[in-house]
């Protein structure tokens, strides 16, 4: 039995993990007008955020096509894989897993297992990395599936965006809509729970925003690992890393930058971190098909 | 009444009506000795409104009630109607006195002495950190004297009490350095002395004298028996130049009682009790334009109040958190509403009573409600409301509008109460409040000499700068606040008396003075302070 791990580009997995752990990433699509760009392939974060603030029209995103998944699975199976574990962002945020499901139907001879992570971005990425590391350690598909589901259940994501405007225009604002209405400016604080964006609250300043997110995360200690990502503000990322390190000095902390597809919906100035709690579960656990 | 050894309920009622009238006549004088020369110093107003709320509720006791029952009703009304810290302490004094009179039909001199003693104890119990040189000290001195001397007439008790209170009041500057520095006695203590003096004068059958600049007609005891009836008439009078004395005389001529006329040359806030509101309005209309006219049928108000207390309407229970914020100013109220709060907008910029706060809590329709007093002088009324709410209300002790808005930004109705309390408290931390206004009178405070009308800036309630120009004082205050702790955001709330065009002018000056800080300007509409800023 040869198992291969597949995910999508919203997982924000740093390149060195992708290469070392042989993770296959299926890109979503960023659209600047009619121009279609494969996320992380045709456009990287650096170029993306420069274009985002320059261009008059806001870009949009699209899930990978069924064909893209079929080609991916086909290549892996041709390469000797007999089992595929395909882990993806929440079905409430994207139709990506739907494309994957349809593509999987074309390969009845293989065992293709899909997991809806009910989250996205770095929280998704941490779970995928855990799966890939378990695979390298020799675990079976069923063992890895259970491990990954448990991992997602204990992963908590904390997000600060500069403005809700990008989420609103991209249609992923969800209940964070409730934060709108203030006459005073604020930084929105968000999480992803039950598969969609949820409001945590608001903060007046960036400093207070990060402190409040870290304070809430603190209630979930002890942590076993964490990850921090940024869009355009590496100094803020460094600050969060430093604070998390202070909370759990022995814990491994992965850093990265959000991909263009995530950037379309979060906007510049976004900071997010995820902590994997040793004991505390998030509200809902993921579903596997 | 002079030789009476016993106080009947009717006599108690008449005596307190006289005391209320005397307190009303001295209200401005008591407000004026507030140590901080800020235009909203209002110990006199707070104590008067608290006493009034109590006496109004006392009317519901009925003509046949004994002293015990009437005192209990007065105490309850004062509790819910208490405004400001001094008002709350007064309401606790009344509560203590009422407890001593419980069950009595008439009060002997000894009962009265005991009531004063209980009142003094209740006041100390109400304050978590009692300070000597305040109204607590003054009433306790009165209590000690009446217990020690044990006069056998009602008048005797009140004379001894008033004398001892007066002496204690004179000593307050020796006990509190800030009083000494400002050259004043304690305002709350003067309020207590005033009430005792009013009671004493009623017991002696004396006429109330004129007070300060306001001449007064001879009080008619018969008329005061009906002081709970008629119309409470209020309006704002504006004209290029107004003569306060003329208006007060005219209001008295039309039979007005409990007359309050406060303000300056061009704007006067008028408050009067009359059997017929027409002439009271005409008196004002002859001198200027009338605004915010409000006429309340006082008898109807008493009945309504009694009905509400009778049914004791339970607070609606609904899942999720509610938020109540105290706001003065339409723009500030709108800012709080935009953050999900139900706003308690006290009338006439008075401090809100705990009854008014509970009403706002009811309006949220939620099972747990966070309460932002936004004023350190509102903490006690807020705590009182929390106690009366049976666990529904949690107070987030915001000392200023600036702190309150920052806390409200962190409010999320989906949070648990503990999470919300932690988040809002954390959000409030580090928010410094800078206020700029013109000094209401000359004083010496915090090591500074301030002239009347001079522009002053305060940081978290401390006077830090004085200047001829309001904008300069404000910038100086902001500089001190930013100097204490680095700032990312300055939010300026423009008051109703901010200069025209202030938004651009002061906004540009602040941005120039602090180039790395984000500056936000909000039209707050608050009274008294043209500029309030949150620095965080």
Description:
The complex is a heterodimer of chains A (289) and B (536). Chain A is α/β, with parallel strands linked by helices and 289 residues long. Chain A has 2 domains: 3-27 and 63-153, Rossmann fold; 155-288, Hypothetical Protein Tm841, Chain: A,domain 3. Chain A is built from 10 helices and 14 strands. Chain A has helices at residues 15-20, 45-54, 66-78, 96-104, 121-136, 141-153, 165-170, 206-218, 234-247, 260-266; strands at residues 3-8, 24-26, 29-32, 35-38, 60-62, 83-88, 111-116, 155-160, 187-193, 196-203, 223-230, 253-257, 271-277, 287-288. In chain A, the strands form 3 sheets. In chain A, strands 10-9-8-13-11-12 form a 6-stranded mixed beta sheet, sandwiched between helices. In chain A, helix 3 packs across helix 4 (96-104) and helix 5 runs antiparallel to helix 6 (141-153). By secondary structure, chain B is an alpha+beta fold. Chain B folds into 4 domains: 6-208, Serine Threonine Protein Phosphatase 5, Tetratricopeptide repeat (Alpha Horseshoe); 229-306, Alpha-Beta Plaits, CATH 3.30.70; 313-399, Rossmann fold, CATH 3.40.50; 432-535, Hypothetical Protein Tm841, Chain: A,domain 3. A 6-stranded mixed beta sheet of chain B has the order 15-14-11-18-16-17, with helices on both faces. In chain B, strands 4-5-3-6 form a 4-stranded antiparallel beta sheet. In chain B, helix 3 crosses helix 4, helix 3 (43-58) packs parallel to helix 5 and helix 5 crosses helix 6 (109-126). The termini of chain B are far apart. Chain A binds chain B through residues 178, 181-186, 199-208, 211-212, 215-216, and chain B through 334-335, 338-340, 405-406, 409-415, 419, 422-423, 426-427, 430-431, 488-489, 491, 518, 520, 522, 536.
């Amino acid at each position: 039995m040869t198992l291969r791990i597949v995910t999508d580009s919203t997982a924000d997995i740093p390149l060195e993990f992708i290469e070392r752990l042989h993770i296959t990433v299926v890109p979503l699509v960023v659209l600047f007008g009619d121009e279609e760009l494969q996320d992380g392939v045709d456009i990287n974060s650096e170029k993306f955020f420069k274009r985002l603030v320059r261009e008059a029209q806001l870009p949009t995103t699209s899930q990978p096509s069924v064909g893209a998944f079929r080609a991916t699975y086909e290549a892996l199976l041709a390469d000797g894989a007999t089992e595929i574990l395909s882990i993806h962002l929440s079905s409430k945020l994207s139709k990506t897993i739907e494309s994957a499901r349809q593509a999987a139907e074309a390969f009845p001879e293989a065992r293709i297992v899909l997991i809806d992570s009910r989250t996205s971005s770095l929280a998704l990425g941490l779970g995928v990395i855990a799966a890939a590391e378990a695979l390298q350690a020799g675990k079976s598909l069923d063992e890895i599936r259970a491990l990954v589901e448990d991992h997602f259940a204990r992963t908590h994501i904390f997000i600060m965006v500069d403005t809700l405007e990008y989420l609103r225009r991209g249609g992923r604002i969800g209940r964070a809509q409730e934060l709108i209405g203030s006459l005073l400016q604020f930084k929105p604080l968000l999480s992803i729970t039950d598969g969609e964006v949820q409001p945590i609250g608001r903060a007046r300043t960036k400093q207070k925003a990060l402190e409040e997110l870290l304070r809430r995360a603190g209630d979930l200690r002890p942590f076993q690992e964490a990850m921090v990502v940024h869009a355009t503000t590496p100094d803020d990322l460094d600050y969060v890393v430093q604070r998390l390190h202070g909370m759990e000095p022995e814990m491994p902390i992965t850093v990265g930058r959000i991909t263009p597809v995530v950037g379309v919906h979060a906007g510049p100035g976004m900071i997010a971190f995820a902590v994997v709690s040793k004991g505390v579960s998030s509200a809902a656990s993921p579903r596997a098909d | 009444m002079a030789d009476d050894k016993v106080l009947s309920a009717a006599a108690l009622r008449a005596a307190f009506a006289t005391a209320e009238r005397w307190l009303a006549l001295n209200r401005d004088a008591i407000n004026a000795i507030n140590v901080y020369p800020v235009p909203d110093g209002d110990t006199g107003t707070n104590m008067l409104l608290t006493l009034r709320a109590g006496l109004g509720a006392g009317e519901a006791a009925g003509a046949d009630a004994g002293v015990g029952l009437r005192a209990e009703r007065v105490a309850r009304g004062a509790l819910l109607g208490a405004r400001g810290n001094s008002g709350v302490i007064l309401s606790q004094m009344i509560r203590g006195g009422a407890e001593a009179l419980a069950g009595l039909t008439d009060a002997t001199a000894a009962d009265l002495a005991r009531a004063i003693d209980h009142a003094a104890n209740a006041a100390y119990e109400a304050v978590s950190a009692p300070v000597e040189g305040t109204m607590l000290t003054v009433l306790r001195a009165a209590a000690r004297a009446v217990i020690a001397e044990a006069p056998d007439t009602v008048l005797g008790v009140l004379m001894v009490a008033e004398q001892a209170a007066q002496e204690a009041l004179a000593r307050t500057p020796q006990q509190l350095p800030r009083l000494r520095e400002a050259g004043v006695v304690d305002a709350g203590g003067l309020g207590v002395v005033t009430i005792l003096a009013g009671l004493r004068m009623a017991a002696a059958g004396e006429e109330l004298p004129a007070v300060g600049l306001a001449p007064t007609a001879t009080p008619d005891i018969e008329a005061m028996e009906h002081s709970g009836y008629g119309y409470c008439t209020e309006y704002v009078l504006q004209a290029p130049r107004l003569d306060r004395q003329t208006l007060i005389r005219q209001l008295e001529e039309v039979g007005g009682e409990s007359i309050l006329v406060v303000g300056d040359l061009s704007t006067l806030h008028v408050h009067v009790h009359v059997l017929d509101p027409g002439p009271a309005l005409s008196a004002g209309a002859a001198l200027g334009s009338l605004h915010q006219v409000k006429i309340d049928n006082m008898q109807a108000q008493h009945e309504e109040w009694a009905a509400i207390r009778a049914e004791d309407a339970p607070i609606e229970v609904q899942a999720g958190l509610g938020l109540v914020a105290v706001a003065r100013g339409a723009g500030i109220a709108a800012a709080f509403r935009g953050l999900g709060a139900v706003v308690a907008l006290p009338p006439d910029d008075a401090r809100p009573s705990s009854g008014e706060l509970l009403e706002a809590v009811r309006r949220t329709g939620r099972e747990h409600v966070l309460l932002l007093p936004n004023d350190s002088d509102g903490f006690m009324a807020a705590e009182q409301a929390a106690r009366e709410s049976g666990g529904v209300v949690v107070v987030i002790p915001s000392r200023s509008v600036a702190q309150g808005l920052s806390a409200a930004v962190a409010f999320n109705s989906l949070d648990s109460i503990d999470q919300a309390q932690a988040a809002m408290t954390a959000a409030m931390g580090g928010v410094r409040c800078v206020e700029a206004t013109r000094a209401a009178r000359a004083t010496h405070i915090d090591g500074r000499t301030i002239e009347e009308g001079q522009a002053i800036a305060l940081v978290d309630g401390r006077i830090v700068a004085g200047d001829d120009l309001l904008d300069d004082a404000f910038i100086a205050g902001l500089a001190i606040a930013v100097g204490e702790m680095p700032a990312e955001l300055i939010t300026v709330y423009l008051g109703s008396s901010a200069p025209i065009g202030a938004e651009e002018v002061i906004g540009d000056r602040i941005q120039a003075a602090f180039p790395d800080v984000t500056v936000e300007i909000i039209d707050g509409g608050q009274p008294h302070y043209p500029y309030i800023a949150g620095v965080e």
